[in-house]
UniProtKB/TrEMBL annotation:
<keyword id="KW-0067">ATP-binding</keyword>
<keyword id="KW-0132">Cell division</keyword>
<dbReference type="Pfam" id="PF21799">
    <property type="entry name" value="MurD-like_N"/>
</dbReference>
<dbReference type="InterPro" id="IPR036565">
    <property type="entry name" value="Mur-like_cat_sf"/>
</dbReference>
<feature type="domain" description="Mur ligase C-terminal">
    <location>
        <begin position="309"/>
        <end position="422"/>
    </location>
</feature>
<dbReference type="GO" id="GO:0008764">
    <property type="term" value="F:UDP-N-acetylmuramoylalanine-D-glutamate ligase activity"/>
</dbReference>
<keyword id="KW-0547">Nucleotide-binding</keyword>
<feature type="binding site">
    <location>
        <begin position="109"/>
        <end position="115"/>
    </location>
    <ligand>
        <name>ATP</name>
    </ligand>
</feature>
<keyword id="KW-0963">Cytoplasm</keyword>
<keyword id="KW-0961">Cell wall biogenesis/degradation</keyword>
<dbReference type="Pfam" id="PF08245">
    <property type="entry name" value="Mur_ligase_M"/>
</dbReference>
<keyword id="KW-0131">Cell cycle</keyword>
<comment type="pathway">
    <text>Cell wall biogenesis; peptidoglycan biosynthesis.</text>
</comment>
<comment type="function">
    <text>Cell wall formation. Catalyzes the addition of glutamate to the nucleotide precursor UDP-N-acetylmuramoyl-L-alanine (UMA).</text>
</comment>
<keyword id="KW-0573">Peptidoglycan synthesis</keyword>
<comment type="similarity">
    <text>Belongs to the MurCDEF family.</text>
</comment>
<protein>
    <recommendedName>
        <fullName>UDP-N-acetylmuramoylalanine--D-glutamate ligase</fullName>
        <ecNumber>6.3.2.9</ecNumber>
    </recommendedName>
</protein>
Amino acid sequence: MQRLVVLGAGESGVGAALLAKQQGWDVFVSDSGIIKEGFQKELDQANIKWEQGVHTLDLIFNADEVVKSPGIPDAVPLIQQLHSRSIPVISEIEFAGRYTQSKTICITGSNGKTTTTMLIHYLLKHSGVNVEMAGNVGTSLARQIADGKTPEWFVIELSSFQLDGMYQFKADIAVLLNITPDHLDRYEYKMQKYINSKFRIVQNQTEEDVFVYCQDDDLIAGELPKRIFKSELLPFTQNDILKQGAYSTLDELIINYNDETMSIFSQDLSLQGRHNLYNSMAAGIVAKVLKIRKKLIRESLSSFKGVAHRLEKVAAVRGIEFINDSKATNVNATWYALECMTKPVIWIAGGVDKGNEYDELMPLVEKKVKSIICLGVDNEKLLKAFGGKVKSIREVQSMDDAVAIAYNQGKKNEVVLLSPACASFDLFDNYIQRGEQFKESVRNL
């Protein structure tokens, strides 16, 4: 019997463990932190051995293969030791992909991947396609396969960390939305390493497959000539007219594919803003490739409800609008958020800096932001970047304080925008908890 060790007992790790047990592997789960009670019960019920708060090396180094949580960096000594022993270390997606015949639509990018994944899933479901959503959003792929799900298509959101552990896995349709500096702390602060990670989405693709990408992204455009692609390339753009792919005019989104054209008025799209136009283009191309009727594509693109914690309107209090963009964990995501704003902004930012450079935000901040509230343990970089650029810049250590100060500074027809540009781990468990606390604080005003 082959032995699989799973490092990290979150949703993806437990999913991988359950699937492996079902497939006849000898499974052991090890988490250096504390495993959530619900996951502990699941492992016990499946008769899977586990440990928490420690990694017992003797029980790990006898593995035939290791599935590691996306949250564990390759640079940690344990992973390096596994590599030195030639024990394969893979991602849950790589493992799960072996046990399904379903086709895959895989979405990655520095920003917009959750929205686009959910939009594609919604579009296909609305059109009667047998489809499930997995990966970095919702239920893990491994768990769904273990639960016996056999959809025609899995729509899978993939982070660069998940892509790093994928070797044989193949996307039938790969979508690359954009590449901007993010998680550089995991890539030795070398941008090319991060770019290479994102382009793993097209590895193993054949002539039968499709690669959908943003032509306007300089890093993607610069990388294309360096690589050989077997798949069909379908770009989308806001700066050009394309015979194959998607583009926009002043008031329409147009998709051309295999001598068929469809269009939808931009004002009819449920997701507004320049960045969301890209997301709608990507989803529209995927739908056309799958031969979904124009009427259904239009209906879906105009009726989809957005993603929680992504430019989510929370409430208006005394004429001040509160917007939750907690999912903006990097500079580029915050750039998009600020770019969408049409009223003066009180900006709540900060958290764990991931090697951010704030220069690209400066023109938008000078034009649109009236004051900044830094919500984080270490705000030095934000203070240095924006001190003197806005009327007021304050530091706080709690969400209640951040919201209260923003409310006191705000006037009618102004916006309080939580768009941190940073990870959340200094004061919160994750961006979801940060966003929920923001909403709670606003409701308590």
